[in-house]
Structures are given as structure tokens and as C-alpha cells.
Amino acid sequence: MIPLSVKVTGLYVFPVKSLRGIPIDKGQLTLTGLKWDRYWMIVKPDGGFITQRQFPQMVLIQTKLTDDSLILSKVGMDDLVIPFIRQIDSNSNFTAKIWKDNCQVNDEGKAASDWLTNAIGAPKPLRLVRMANKHKRPQSRPSLLGDTTHTLFSDAAPYLVCNTASLQAINHSLKENDIKPVTIENFRPNIVIEGVNAFAEHQIKGLMHANYKLKLCYPCQRCAIPTIDILSGTRNARQQPFSLLAELNSMPDNEKAPAFGENGILESGENTSIRIGDQLILEK
Fold first, then answer.
1. 161: closest CA among 16, 282, 3, 20?
2. Which tops the pLDDT comparison, 91 or 258?
3. CA–CA gap between residue 79 and residue 217 (Å, rounded)
4. 104 within 8 A of 93, measured Cβ to Cβ
5. What is the pLDDT of residue 99?
6. For position 74, what pLDDT does the model report?
7. pLDDT tens digits, one per residue of 132-189
8. What is the dihedral of CA 241, 245, 248, 253, to 10 degrees?
9. Which residues fall within 8 angstroms of residue 150, CB to CB, at 6 or more apart?
10. What pLDDT score does 138 carry?
């Protein structure tokens, strides 16, 4: 039996796609996700995006948000400071590609390029980009997320909701197989809830608060990123928890593909805040 409510126990923003995230106590809800989430992306010279799938060491780069800047840091390097407001060079606008979506973006400049290329150890120069002013990324999954939903640089949906009981279930399986447990950060969630059984999040249609409502749309199919140790930047030698998770909780249409968490959208409450400790009524 699914209870009537759950509690928010974790909130995370990931300012730069595939770099380390930031745990927060409260976040601002927007239609494209939590404020500052996946606001920046790193691309190759041809505009194609990169992630930990190609460069697992990206997880070693820490992110921090101040009142006016993004700060990137890595052990052994000086910090890189990217102001929220900057003078955009007219030549900095170009087309980048994330999955099948072409997006107009602005380059954050040579200093950012040099820093990231060195920090990641990429063979060719990398570029840090943000979405160009007023550009709206094409919607690639209207049948699942709705015609009006748009994101910045998230893989798919504006929000990823994960369940602490599901993490406990996969870690129990890992322990039984003498494999190091994983953290919730391995799955890069925005909102973490507790109060329902493992993988019961897939049976929830929505999460309602007095000030906002989130709709849960479909399970998140996992790739190899959760197999990367967030402290060392190395992949698990046995590629776990990928196959164990597929055994525990597979995608509805593919028993070999692991699922963890629910992709979601904001239905109401734009620009309100979500906080750790919020009690959310379940729509079943």
C-alpha cells in the first residue's frame, strides 16, 4: 500500500552538465528545472556535448554558486570564476548539439576553455556554453513530457525525482555481491524523497504541496554514469550497479535496461521554493 505523503530529504542542482552537483537546503522551482540546474554545458570544437560517459573524470570537478558567479574547482588547479552576468561577444553565439537537439549557445570564453581542457585532459579544446538569450531548446518528447515543456541542458526532463528506499535496495544487492555501495549522487537527482517502498515512485503520478505540484512522467533509464565512483572518477570494474539494477528494476519496455528515479515536470508553482523537509501529498 502506498502512503498518502512523502518527505523531501534531499535537493541537488548540477550547474554544469556532468560535473559534480551541489546539495542545497532549498531551491527555486522553474519550468526548466531547479534554478541553475544544467545551466551550462561543455562541448567539443564541433559543438557536440560531452559527459562522464566519455570523460568519467569530469565528476572530479566541483561546482559552487555564489551570489553572482559560478565557481569551478579541481584539486591542484586555481579556481575558475564565471560571472552570471557577462558581456556577450557577438562572435560567441554558435550552434551546439545535445542529443538530437540543436541549440543556440554562447561561449564563456578562452579562459574557461583552457581551464576545462586542462582539468578534463581532453585531446582537443573544450568550450563552456550557456543557452543563448531567448533561445528555447526544441522539445523532443512531447508525448511524455507535454507539448509546452522545455529544458536547458538536462538529458530529458526538467526534474529527476529519486527515492531513498530504492537506493537502499540497490545497495543491499551490491553488498550481497561484494561490491562497493553507491550514493544517491551517483544517480544525479534533483529531488530525493522518502516514505515509500523501493521503486514505488514509478506508481506515483504526482507530488503536491500547498505551493507547487510536480508531475511524474516516466521512469529514468540509466546509462553507465552511475557506475563511476564520484570520489575517484573511475568506473566500477564490474560495471555495477548497471546489471544488478536491471534485475531489480528494469524499464517497462526493456528488461535489460535499468531504471532509477522518475522524470518529472512542474505543473504549478513556478518560481516558488521547494525545501528539505517539505511534506508532499501523493497523486496515485
1. 282
2. 258
3. 38
4. yes
5. 95
6. 98
7. 988 999 888 899 999 999 999 999 899 999 999 999 999 999 999 999 999 999 999 9
8. -170
9. 31, 32, 136, 137, 139
10. 85
Residue corresponding to grid cell 500547498: 210
Residue 218 main-chain phi, psi, to 5 deg: -170, 155
- Are 217 and 262 contacting, i.e. CB atoms less than 8 angstroms apart? yes
User: How long a stretch of residues is the chain?
Assistant: 284
pTM: 0.96
Give pLDDT tens digits for 196-221: 999 999 999 999 999 999 999 999 99
Q: What was the pLDDT predicted at 284?
A: 86
Residue 53 neighbours by CB under 8 Å, 6+ apart:
223, 224, 225
How many Cα neighbours within 13 Å face the side chain of 20? 21
Written as one letter, the residue type at 186 is N
Considering only CA atoms, which of 61, 60, 67 is closest in space to residue 80? 61
Strand-pair category, 80-83 with 40-43: unpaired
At residue 257, the 3 state secondary structure works out as strand
Cα separation, 239 vs 91, in Å, equals 42
Strand-pairing partners, residue 9, are none
Give the closest residue to 265 by CA, choosing from 138, 148, 129, 187. 148
Q: What share of the chain is helix, strand, coil (3-state, %, to 5)?
A: 20, 35, 45
The H-or-E segment that residue 235 falls in is none
All three cell numbers of 78, joined, read 586555481
Taking only the tens place, the pLDDT of each residue in 231-265 is 999 999 999 999 999 999 999 999 999 999 999 99
